[in-house]
Amino acid sequence: MSDRLIRGRTLSFRRRPEGPSDLGALAYEEDGALLIREGRIVASGPFDCARGLPIDDHRGHLVLPGLIDAHLHMPQMRVMASWGTELLDWLSRYTFPEEARCVDPAHAARMARAFFDSTLRNGTTTVAAFCTSHPASAEAFFTESARRGLRVIGGKVMMDQGAPEALLDTADRAHDETEALIRRWHGVGRAEVGITPRFAITSSPAQLAAAGALAAAHPSCPVQTHLSENHAEVALAARLHPNAPDYFGIYEAHGLAGPRSLFGHCLHLTERERAAMAETGSVAVFCPTSNLFLGSGLFDMAGLEAAGLRTAIATDIGGGTSPSLLRTLAEAYKVLALQGQRMDPLTAFWRATRGNAEALGLGNRIGSLEPGIEADVVVLDPRATPEMALRHETVESLAEELFLLQTLGDDRAVRAVYAAGEPLLPAP
Ligand code: GUN
Ligand code: ZN
């Protein structure tokens, strides 16, 4: 692999910004360059001379770390835009029947291809994704991500109750299939296997215990699940697990809380749950388009962070309605505005890059443009559409420009994508 120079307006975050004028949090070069060698960034700074290297010239466009999606479902590409239900009905009417089709490895492979085509076209280079309960769906996911050289977290869903027979495994089978997946893919190339009990509704206590045993035996594996998304779900979880103090307590009791544990949604948490999540370093994942679409509720970012929780942001395809993290930031802004909270644009882009990398425990590998970091890069055009170009005429600061990108941008704003230094978009 030869060296490559990417030239453009390089922008990444040294730390979390404290507000829209906290430029000290940024590493920004108006005419900057990244030197890429063997899949990593080896230098970044002002463009000076090319020293005979091949240059990818993106002058005028923003060169950022690849975007990171902290929670979504690979087999749900065709579940997006399913009408008229809340969570539990949506799962049984639309989601479970569609996931059942992944029993066919050819279908799973087709969905995996469509999934990564979509995430990459939207500038997302890392996902933390749920597959289905079929090992073949996880195999399709990892095969496809490896083919494209992507850093990913993925997991075979564990579910042994409360769903159609065609999707159910057992506590033992889910344990053994997840362990086999870990042996086959965890730490191979850029893949990590997540231990993935779907949620406390579809896992028996025995299966949650099996998931906890896996987490204890494989501490380098992340854990991903759902928590407190919908009132009917919270009530059902309490009925199914009567000995737990609350919903989060179910996961805690089975050894599934911790700094590498990602909990999708977290909309209706009690004070005790917030305190316990903070104490264990568990991550609450904000899924704004999904929460709006399913009418689930409003994520209380300020309240959760004041309680000391770590947070991340995600599309949650296919409850979510867009694979674009730009669209997701736009909806996040509105969800928070409804609660009198304002997410500034620097913090928004920190969340979609370094913030999510740190939440996933991958901050030493991805999420910035610092030397040593893996060269996952997205190039964004802030004038991508006529409306964006017109609005851009009155933009006076980088923060305003980022807000324009998140509010009006989508896949049309994604000009190029690199994974481990290799150009994936436009297709080579
Ligand atoms: N809870 C359990 N499974 C799911 C899922 O597939 N999507 C969402 N949004 N919530 C869930
Ligand atoms: Zn989900």
Brief overview, please?
Helix content is 37%, strand content 23%. By secondary structure, it is an alpha/beta fold.
Describe it:
- This protein is of the alpha/beta class and about 425 residues long.
- The chain is about 35% helix and about 25% strand.
- The protein is built from 14 helices and 17 strands.
- The chain has a seven-stranded mixed β-sheet, with helices on one face.
- Helix 2 packs across helix 3 and helix 13 (about 385-390) runs antiparallel to helix 14 (about 400-410).
- The radius of gyration is 21 Å and the shape is globular.
- The two termini are about 15 Å apart.
- The relative contact order is 0.16.
- The model has no long low-confidence stretch (mean pLDDT about 95).
- The chain binds guanine and zinc ion (ZN).
- Zinc ion binds near residues 71, 73, 226 and 316.
List the helices and strands and how they pair.
Layout: E1 4-13, E2 26-37, E3 40-46, E4 55-65, E5 67-73, H1 87-100, H2 105-121, E6 124-130, H3 135-148, E7 152-155, E8 157-158, H4 171-185, E9 191-193, E10 196-197, H5 205-217, E11 223-227, H6 231-240, H7 247-253, E12 261-265, H8 271-280, E13 283-286, H9 288-293, H10 301-306, E14 310-313, H11 325-337, H12 345-359, E15 377-380, H13 386-392, H14 398-408, E16 414-419, E17 422-425
Parallel strand pairs: 1-4, 5-6, 6-7, 7-9, 8-10, 11-12, 12-13, 13-14
Antiparallel strand pairs: 1-2, 2-3, 4-15, 15-16, 16-17
Helix pairs in contact: 2-3, 3-4, 4-5, 11-14, 12-14, 13-14
